[in-house]
Amino acid sequence: MGKEAEYFxxxxxxEKLKEEVESNPSLSYHFQTFDSNSPSLxxxxxxxxxWNQFHxxxxxxxxxxxxxxxxxx
Length: 73
What we know:
Blueprint: H1 14-23, H2 44-57
């Protein structure tokens, strides 16, 4: 543990990042607005149906391994 650690409140300068993104045409997609009518998104009913099917298939499944702790009696 002889090495000291340095902590920072942020990983980068926002203004520098902004200039970099604005000056690079390949990053222009970051400025595009999100289209909520995009056909690639499932409808809420399809999304709900997918969750229902998932829960039906996995209703008895265990997603986390049970942890057993040794106890003194």
